[in-house]
Specification:
The protein is mainly beta. The protein has one domain: Beta Barrel (Cathepsin D, subunit A, domain 1), CATH 2.40.70.10. It is about 15% helix and about 45% strand. The radius of gyration is 14 Å and the shape is globular.
Amino acid sequence: QKGGKVYRQWVKLGGSSGEIVRTRAVIDAGAMRNTMCTRKWQQWHHRLGRKEESAVIMRVADNHTIPSVGRWTGKTTVSGVEMETTFEMFDSHGAFEIILGKPWLRAVKAIHHFKDDMINISSTNKIVTITN
């Protein structure tokens, strides 16, 4: 049944030394930030490069706040569409690895076609349709 599942897509994260991490991302138009679980960061940091300090405090679905423990910026590729993306980090306790939220959706000029449950994403030279 279309529309009943969370959007999950394979994503490639490009580190500063050229290494690539492949993982599954949740695409969430309700998320005000792109986020990365700190548990995954601990596995990937040697491949992705340095994180920065962050003063961001995020508010989650149940309305409590969580301070970011850092920020990572790097190349993110979904279905061949490449974009520089910044992620705030916190411990999701295994709920997710990566969330691509509104900042990423805006950057890739996302258009959600609700009838067919498809999203068009684009970069300077490419337009791709991803399905749920």
